[in-house]
From TrEMBL:
GO molecular function: protein N-terminal-serine acetyltransferase activity; protein-N-terminal-alanine acetyltransferase activity
Keyword Transferase: yes
SUPFAM superfamilies per the UniProt record, alphabetical: Acyl-CoA N-acyltransferases (Nat)
PANTHER family, sorted: RIBOSOMAL-PROTEIN-SERINE ACETYLTRANSFERASE
Listed GO CC annotations: cytoplasm
Protein name: GNAT family N-acetyltransferase
Species this chain originates from: Nocardioides turkmenicus
Length: 215
């Protein structure tokens, strides 16, 4: 018996022209935690609800491990969050999350991501989300994908714009006692079909379908 026999999600792999997206081993997860410890955005910025810049490096690293482990332990076919590590060759550079609640009925996913600071502005964020959405739309049968971003998070908004997301209202969150407004964005299947994903390969999906609640 292998790990993939017990937990088929470890056999799910998405390959794009430059990236590989998959669940990491614990050793790879530790290396990814170091990427987060080294910083995911400039200290003067705060583009996420997670207080990356305010946390000490060790706390940032531990946050990465806790998030990955808890998402696996709490996985349910009707309520799941897939945290895929983004690799360039064999080096982890960030994460992209695909999450859903009642996916079999709603056919809707949400995405979130972060990259280590040295890997910004190289198109990796767009490529990673395109790969994750290829899994959701083309292999799991999603009808919609949503994303949220603060108005000053130009990188996230830019990725969404490139992939065809449209405005979908706002959401309100509390950070350090202050109410903040995020732009909500939505991508429908019709617009998704116009994206070029010819260079993307997804393998290992079939054994995982029941885990996503679609088999």
């Amino acid at each position: 018996m292998t790990l993939i026999d017990v937990w088929p999600l470890f056999g799910l792999v998405i390959r794009t022209p430059r990236l590989e997206l998959r669940l990491p081993t614990d050793d790879e997860l530790t290396r990814l935690a170091q990427v987060a410890a080294d910083g995911v955005h400039e200290p003067t910025e705060r583009p996420f609800l997670t207080p990356w810049a305010e946390q000490p490096p060790l706390d940032r690293a531990r946050h990465v491990l806790r998030s990955a482990w808890s998402s696996r332990g709490e996985w349910q076919p009707g309520d799941w969050s897939l945290g895929l590590t983004v690799f360039v060759e064999a080096d982890p550079i960030g994460m992209v999350w695909v999450s859903a609640t009642e996916f079999a009925e709603r056919r809707e996913v949400s995405t979130a991501s972060w990259l280590g600071l040295p890997h910004h502005r190289r198109g990796f964020g767009t490529e990673a989300r395109l790969g994750a959405l290829t899994l959701a739309f083309d292999h799991l049968g999603a009808a919609y994908a949503t994303s949220e971003a603060f108005p000053d998070n130009a990188a996230s908004v830019g990725v969404s714009t490139k992939l065809g997301y449209e405005p979908d209202g706002i959401s309100r969150d509390v950070r350090d006692g202050e109410v903040l407004v995020s732009h909500r964005l939505r991508l429908g299947r019709e617009r998704w079909e116009r994206n070029d994903r010819s260079g993307i390969e997804v393998s290992g999906v079939e054994p995982c379908l029941s885990w996503f609640g679609v088999a």
